[in-house]
């Protein structure tokens, strides 16, 4: 497939222009001017140099053993798990982006570094018989270009680096401009750790000043063989227009369904915990509640016990004016704490408030749109089947994440089949679905649009068949 470079650039400009502050999507929003980082340790002045360096490093990397890869991944984990690194990344992600919660980012960074799968994810398949031996092995693409969001800046770099290098690739990051300084710091630290472990220089690279032009150059560069975009639907559309193998981790609008059979106290705590996690920045977090009418009042009562604030009808109207502009959230309020949002409309926040719940109609902006704020619309429905049907509608076909609280296995099954999300959490907070408090490995690149699901090392590989004819069948 041949893509006209002018057409590609126009597509990227269209997508990224829609992500500027005030337009409701901050995945690649323009950042305030910052002091440009100096080159070195994987950080380059221009994208062409970053890609070329990564290409040379990956060619050398092909000659390294699987034992070497294990050692390099261990070095990355150690560098990212150092207490001073966890503290710095967590504090600076909030300070530089203006979003999120330091404690929750600390937890996400720790989980990403310690639990992201490495080379153990690359399991060889084999057949043997009268005609010999055939193996199927996971092989690298080469240089991967990765676009990372401001919502999970360091966690995404950590988990992508571990998975992509475990798979034998090099990676060039195009991070969010608002956290450019932090991203450069992280790439430098990773490269120094890799160098100390004996890895080729520049297996992980980035640029001193991330920008539209640099993102465009990375996507169009002939030596970038695969693109991985973690962000909204626009940036996914851009990488899918590139003509290259692309993994797209897009937006979601996860519904949380609660029916009359649920443990209401438990459901309430789980929803408050999940929806307030990192101030609702994760795309996996509960974004609206659909409650069967007979238990809705009890659910709200229990949520208030666990740190929620129920807004009055008048306060909901004020919140709508503050937080949304037409059909889009106001970027300046994304990832802000519930207490600050309440203060902005003149409400004194109760001690310990973590989440604002607003009873609303099914077409209210707090229900229909992904706000990425600790503000959730709650919709009443007559029965569980109506709740499931509405959840499917409100998820918008993103195939991202959904949550259901119920003890009715048949209804849990019905919702799972109809909602078709990559992650379906039953009777727990949403973050259980990404390996935080739930079984399974974590990731911060969840590829619903392109179907890879929760990405790991094997997601960044090609399957290759090796056939030895007539030999090595010893049965």
List keywords for this structure.
single chain; 475 residues; six-stranded parallel beta sheet; 16 helices; 20 strands
Number of strands: 20
Strand content: 15-25%
Which percent range fits the helix content? 40-55%
Q: Profile the largest sheet.
A: 7 strands, parallel
* Strands ordered across the widest β-sheet: 11-14-15-10-9-16-17
| Count of helical stretches | 16
In whole angstroms, the N-to-C terminal distance is: 45 Å
The shape, in one word, is globular
Structural class label: alpha/beta
Task: Write a short abstract of this structure.
This protein is of the alpha/beta class. 40% of the residues lie in helices and 19% in strands. It has helices at 5-17, 47-61, 66-81, 83-97, 102-115, 153-166, 180-196, 212-220, 233-240, 264-276, 293-305, 313-323, 338-344, 365-368, 384-394, 409-419; strands spanning 43-44, 125-129, 132-140, 143-147, 170-174, 204-207, 224-230, 245-249, 255-258, 288-292, 308-310, 324-325, 328-329, 355-359, 375-381, 401-405, 423-426, 446-447, 453-454, 461-469.
Tell me about this structure.
This protein is an alpha/beta fold and 475 residues long. Helices cover 40% and strands 19% of the residues. It is built from 16 helices and 20 strands. It has helices spanning 5-17, 47-61, 66-81, 83-97, 102-115, 153-166, 180-196, 212-220, 233-240, 264-276, 293-305, 313-323, 338-344, 365-368, 384-394, 409-419; strands at 43-44, 125-129, 132-140, 143-147, 170-174, 204-207, 224-230, 245-249, 255-258, 288-292, 308-310, 324-325, 328-329, 355-359, 375-381, 401-405, 423-426, 446-447, 453-454, 461-469. A seven-stranded parallel sheet has the order 11-14-15-10-9-16-17, sandwiched between helices. Helix 7 (180-196) links the parallel strand 5 (170-174) and strand 6. The protein is globular and about 70 Å long. The relative contact order is 0.15.
């Amino acid at each position: 497939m041949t893509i006209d470079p002018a057409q590609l650039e126009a597509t990227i400009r269209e997508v990224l222009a829609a992500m500027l502050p005030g337009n409701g999507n901050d995945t690649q929003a323009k950042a305030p001017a910052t002091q440009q980082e100096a080159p070195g340790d994987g950080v380059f002045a221009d994208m062409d140099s970053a890609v070329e360096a990564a290409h040379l490093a990956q060619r050398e990397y092909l000659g390294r053993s699987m034992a070497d890869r294990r050692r390099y991944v261990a070095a990355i984990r150690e560098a990212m798990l150092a207490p001073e690194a966890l503290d710095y990344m967590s504090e600076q992600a909030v300070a530089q982006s203006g979003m999120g919660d330091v404690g929750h980012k600390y937890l996400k960074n720790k989980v990403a570094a310690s639990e992201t799968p490495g080379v153990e994810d690359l399991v060889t398949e084999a057949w043997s018989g009268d005609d010999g031996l055939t193996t199927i092995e996971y092989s690298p693409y080469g240089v991967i270009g990765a676009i990372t969001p401001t919502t999970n800046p360091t966690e995404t770099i950590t988990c992508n680096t571990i998975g992509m290098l475990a798979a034998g690739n090099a990676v060039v990051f195009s991070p969010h401009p608002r956290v450019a300084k932090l991203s450069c710091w992280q790439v430098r630290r990773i490269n120094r750790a890799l160098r100390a472990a004996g890895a080729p220089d520049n297996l992980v690279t980035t640029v001193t000043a991330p920008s539209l032009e640099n993102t465009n150059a990375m996507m169009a560069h002939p030596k970038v063989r695969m693109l991985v975009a973690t962000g909204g639907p626009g940036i996914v559309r851009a990488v899918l227009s590139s003509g290259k193998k692309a993994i797209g981790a897009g937006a979601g609008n996860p519904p949380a369904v609660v029916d009359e059979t649920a443990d209401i106290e438990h459901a309430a705590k789980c929803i408050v915990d999940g929806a307030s996690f990192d101030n609702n920045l994760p795309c996996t977090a509960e974004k609206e509640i659909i409650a069967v009418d007979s238990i809705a009042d009890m659910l709200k009562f229990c949520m208030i016990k666990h740190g929620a604030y129920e807004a009055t009808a008048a306060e909901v109207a004020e919140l709508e004016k503050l937080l949304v502009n037409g059909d889009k959230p106001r970027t300046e309020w994304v990832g802000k704490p519930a207490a600050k949002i309440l203060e902005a409309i003149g409400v004194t926040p109760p001690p310990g408030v973590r989440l604002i719940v607003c009873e609303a109609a099914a077409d209210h902006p707090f229900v229909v749109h992904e706000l990425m704020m600790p503000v959730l619309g709650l919709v009443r429905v007559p029965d569980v089947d109506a709740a499931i049907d509405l959840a499917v509608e409100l998820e918008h076909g993103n195939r991202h994440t959904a949550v259901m609280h119920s003890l009715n296995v048949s209804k849990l099954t019905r919702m799972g089949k109809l909602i078709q999300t990559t992650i379906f959490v039953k009777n727990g907070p949403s973050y259980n679905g990404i390996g935080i408090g739930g079984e399974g490995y974590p990731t911060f690149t969840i590829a619903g649009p392109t179907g890879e699901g929760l990405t790991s090392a094997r997601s960044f590989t090609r399957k290759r068949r090796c056939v030895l004819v007539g030999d090595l069948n010893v049965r």
